[in-house]
Fold:
Amino acid sequence: MTPPPARRRRTGANGAAPAHNLPRRGAVRRAQAITTYGVGSLIAVDHESFIVSGLDEAEQIWSRDESPQIYERRLARLLDVDYFRLPPASDDTSKDGLRVRRFPLMHSCPDCNDLQRHRDFNPPAGKSVCGTCEADLVPSRFVVACKDGHLGEFPYWQWVHRSKERGASTAGQCGGKLKLRTSGHTASLRSILVSCTCGHAPEVSMEGSFRRNALKDLGLKCRGPRPWLGASATAKDCGLPLRTLQRGSSAVWQPVLKSALSIPPWSDGRADPLAEHWDTLRQYDEPAHVEIYLRGAFKGKCPISLEEVMTLLAAEREEDPDSETAPTFDHRYRALRNKEYERLRSGNDESEHARDEQFVCETPLGDQSVLDPLGVTGPMLVKKLREVRALKAFTRLTDAESTTDSKEMPLSEHPLRWLPAMEVRGEGVFLRLDEDRLDAWEKALAVGARVERMRTAHQRVLEQRADDPSLVVPSPATPRMVLLHTLAHVLINEWSLEAGYPAAALRERLYAADDMAGVLVYTATSDSAGSLGGLVAQGEPELLDRTVRSALRRAEWCSSDPLCIETEASGAGGINLAACHACVMLPETSCEHNNILLDRALLIGTPDDPDLGFFANALEP
Structure:
């Protein structure tokens, strides 16, 4: 999606031009600076293309007025930072914004067909037009990237001068100029033709440039370019194979996002007054020793009570492993989810806390026994919640979740003590499945065999994406996970129809493990759809019973049936079974797993085996 062009140039508070004197090229929503147009991503504005600059420059530009600090202690500890910052505001009153650099630099002119660097066209200041033809320049459609996250220009010189007689090494030494034109015969790469005026190389098409070994055959390897860091970035020869990509391909930039719900005792969203003292405080077990240290550190005026300090210390120790080794990222992330699950189960009554409490979770007043026939238990009304989503890093060509050694590219050349993040406030409904009934259902041979097909297909895809198969993480597909995942999707679809919420305004959060079997559906937007109380009202037992039954009956039939329900595999790589866009798939922003590992047959069964579904018997008339 292309951001809208700016309506006018931004001005300062008194109508004067901002101090940096840089033109405004476009506008994006704040959340998009985390999820879509984060550091290192390519952004198209009208007919121009840019790359979002790294945070080394932003450290000096992002003002506290337009990029305020936000705090979420558990997530900050997980990501080893002190705090987070919101991206700069992008309205007409803001003075600053996200910095971008022109990329790719190779452009072509549709009139004279020249293909060269942008500056070589001698465009007028502030414009992207050919200095001779005055036609709008077209950024290169093609870029190259490696799995370590480097991004570079497509090697047009080497591609044209790749004949066996001359060799690719002589490219750029012929003295000619590159030309690019389209034959117009087809819309394929075969119609994109590149030539050189030197006359020693024939005109060639771009066909074949996307082959996995196309650039390797030319003897080209990655040289480590990092254009989002600017000319000051030190490029190191990477040596990995290069892949050709379309400039707008999703494989060019994949964010590594981590999120956490603010739960007690870290649910007030305030700055941590003890941030500089935790390393020392962790050495003390006795309250008396902690009190002595606090008196000396704060001269008797500690900003929080001793009881609260001990509670916070206990919460941090629970997230650390029992062994003497340092806690790993994966352990802390699992511990983060476990703590959320425990707090969602136990609740947090609003009457027991001050108004600044940002997590309120209460038991509904209705009779919960009406949910027993469905195997649903423990519904909770999450009347207030706060979620912080942080951009940790980004990847190219690979999914950061697919390997234990993911090639994550940091957001800056030098370590930073903060990360860009967004916070959303909303509400939600939490429910669990009956453990005894779930255990019996999971042991059914038909259930295990069906999920094993999905797990095998997913594992195969993960291995294909990884450089080293030994580093591939195991697929999370289990009967419990697929069941909860699909249940969350049908509930979101149901509430989008019955409660007036757009599906994109709702989000799932799964708690699927040996000791967890719950799902949280919550609003996750920063607009008025976030906290109007409508979603919480859906969690009352009688209404929830009707909602679940209606959602399951709706899942019994898909407009693509019988093809959908009887398919042996669906989705990319066959990772889904009975799931398509006509039944259970959601907008990508609503799903934690990118619409994979879904199967509505585990909810309601199949025509040949109705008992396969967890809820099959509950829906019998």
In short: DSSP finds 15 helices and 20 strands in the chain. The longest strand covers residues 376-395.
